[in-house]
Amino acid sequence: MSLFRKSPEQKQAVADMKAADKALNDNTDREKRAGIRDETPEYLRLNTAANQAAAKVSRWRGGTR
Q1: Where along the chain is composition biased (Basic and acidic residues) (predicted)?
Q2: Contact predicate 20/50, CB 8 Å
């Protein structure tokens, strides 16, 4: 096994992190266009999900672990 190969679990964690980040960014863009400047419950929910997904991914792959 190579040092740079990802296991299936790592691949799934990276995909989950990217999906959570995309959902958060899409929501942020939508709220910004609507003129919302405060943190909404939806933003907080998506931000928490993105942080939890990033916690499962190593820093080498863009996460926080």
Answers
A1: 18-38
A2: yes
